[in-house]
Amino acid sequence: MVIAKRMEPLVAGSSIIRKLFEEGKEMAKKVGAENVYDYSLGNPSVPAPDAVKSSIIKILDTEDPLFVHGYMSNSGYEEVRQAVADNLNERFQWQYKMEDIIMTVGAASGINDILNLFLDSGDEVVVFAPFFGEYRNYVITAGGVLKAVPADTETFQINIDGLDAVITEKTKLIIVNNPNNPTGQTIDRDMLIKILDRCKKQNIVVILDECFLEFLDEPNRYEMSDLRGEYPNLLIIKAFTKIFSMPGLRLGYAISSNQDILEEMSWKLQQWNVSVPAQMAGVAALEKPKEYIRQTREYVSGQREYMRNIMKMMGYVVFASKANYLFFKGRPGLEKEALEAGFLIRDCQNYEGLSEGFYRIAVRGEADNRAFLQAVQELEQREG
Length: 384
Fold this sequence. Notes:
By secondary structure, this protein is an alpha/beta fold. Helix content is about 45%, strand content about 15%. A hairpin with a 6-residue loop joins strand 9 (about 315-320) and strand 10.
């Protein structure tokens, strides 16, 4: 069977990830799953809040099964949206309303929904290279054309002049990922405001993907939600997936001051969008989030800097990531050697603007990280 022509680049772009999965499965068969360490994906390094597990058990044990397994409002339950608003207001002293928020199936689904809402065939979407590979897939399936601002492969900081050069009269949206995936680099508020000002003047919608923002030591320095009233063209995407260690439950949300956009989104979202257990787990995660977030942030930051320092001493160029992963430059072929040693790492050469030798690794638990560093050191000694 021949797939649609428009799907061919999407399939080709995800082939490396699929290959990693298959290679990992084959390696697990040979040496045992306990001897294979997946550093290619950002799976949780700490457990989700205890309240998440308790809430799911309670829902299944006590709620009417017709409610638990039934359809729900596209925008998300009012209780959940209000809990998100209350949490943001308490932590950042903002003035959110339930109506400012729509629940989505993770951050990725929210971005996909927005693109499908706004794009006509041939409309352009601008991103900053390197970028999360699924952005391209979402743009293509929505009928758009993706344009990338070239990457500065020395610093991976945004070049505002590069943005001006890429914007055309066909530009409909811009996606900004802060911190960036795969580099972990941050964009400061002043730069974000410059981007928003340019886009507001040209009637361009800005999608600000903040799903990794909570890993920053001072997320308030980068938060833009307090400016949402000044920029009705701004849509902010957040997720429970990362900081609350809930990737399998798929729960995120979109924020905007533009009620017209949110109303349109609620109608255009896939029918019966987010599951009941996922939304109730989100409410539970927000019951006492401050201490959990603080502990998770400190743990991930400590392990990340430990790994970064050791890898720098080995001679790798390791960038100062602020997320729950590290981005570094090493010799070509390292991913194959690591796989033979039982470690899957993300080869980033298929990211826009990156070449052979760039890699991303997740920050995992302390014991796994020590095993990984020891394996890499042995590979370097063998190579040297």
